[in-house]
Amino acid sequence: MADTKLATPLRSSTPQPTFSSDAPRLSSPPSSPPCFPWELKESAEDEKPAPSKTLTPPPKTAFSLLGKRKVLNSISENVRPAKKATRTKSKPESRPALTQLQISLGQRVQTTCVICGMEYVASSAEDRKLHDIYHRQHTEGYDVGKDFTVKARDVTSLANAKHGQEGDVICVVQYSDTLARRKRAQAVLEVVQKDLGAVPINEKELWSLLLDDETNNGAETTRRRDGIKRRPRYAAYMYVRGTKCIGFLLAERIKKAHRVVGPTPEKARTLTPQPTETQPGGSALAALKARREAEAKAKTTKLAEEKKADNKPLELSKSSTPADLGVARLWTSPAHRKQNVARSLLDAACAHGLGMDGNDERRVDRIAFSQPTAMGTQLARRWTGRRCGWLVYID
């Protein structure tokens, strides 16, 4: 039997691992040997200290400091009321300190201008400025500008007129004119109405149209889309000297008016001088002297009666009379009165609105005045040449 020899184990050429127990001891403690993760877990459980029999309180949280939280119920049963908005009182705004500009010692604060009649505070610079503007417009006329007369469609030159001056013109403004010209005429009308104390006429009524009744007597008519003829209700006649409007007449289309009634027959007989009879034995010279004295006495009595009647309201007839044109407003600047400005305006209104000359006698029966004042009554009597019998209409 062949001898069997034990095979000697072969050594690997790879270096053998060296463990910490085989290494020489060093001054620093050796590091832990490598291990698997589960071994670390088991060692951690082994090293965990045994639980003590005494219970430690749980750590304090925010809820433990605030108190035990109430268990919430369902939403429908535990609805928290909405918080009311608290109103914060706003601090009062600091107002600037007021300064007394006037000292009231019982004196009159407002002053009334004797000429223009405007009331203003004399100590106020703003009031004085407004008064100066209105005072100049009232006394010297309203400034309408240089182009007002140049761009006018209907102009009456008074250069060769009997009552006008060189360069004076009368311009007519009505519905068909531009808006700028109508605004100028309306501004002058406001000054006139304040001075006369008349009822204001609004803008819509001032530039309105009336149906044409085929008796317009040459007045301007306007056709609209419906084909019906219409004519302006009002027409403004402005007397311009230079650039200032110193006279204004507002004419209105009317249909009827009333005549001014004169004195009654009883009063008329007292104003007529009675003829004196020549006494027998008297001379003709004495009779002539007595007759002249009676006429002078009757004339004096008549003037006294007329003066007394001027201070009384006008008496109008109860029955109406047909009329075509009414003088709604008539005004002359105080600085230019007694210069026949109003007479020129009346003549221009007759020529433009009625197609008549100012000297035509028929104008008295066609034109009427709107409830004239004392000065207007005197003007109407001078212009018509009658103390009674001229027309007045109620607007």
From TrEMBL:
The keyword Hydrolase does not apply. Residues 20-29 have a biased composition (Low complexity). Keywords: Acyltransferase, Cell cycle, Metal-binding, Nucleus, Transferase, Zinc, Zinc-finger. Residues 100-137 form the N-acetyltransferase ESCO zinc-finger domain. It comes from the Eukaryota. Residues 39-50, 290-315 have a biased composition (Basic and acidic residues). Its main location: nucleus. The keyword Zinc-finger applies. Residues 1-62, 75-97, 262-318 are annotated as: Disordered. InterPro entries: AcTrfase_ESCO_Znf_dom, ESCO_Acetyltransf_dom. One of its GO terms (cellular component) is chromatin. GO terms for molecular function: protein-lysine-acetyltransferase activity; zinc ion binding. It is found in: Nucleus. Residues 10-19, 271-281 have a biased composition (Polar residues). GO terms for biological process: mitotic sister chromatid cohesion. Residues 322-393 form the N-acetyltransferase ESCO acetyl-transferase domain. Pfam families: Acetyltransf_13, zf-C2H2_3. Belongs to the acetyltransferase family. ECO subfamily. This is Uncharacterized protein.
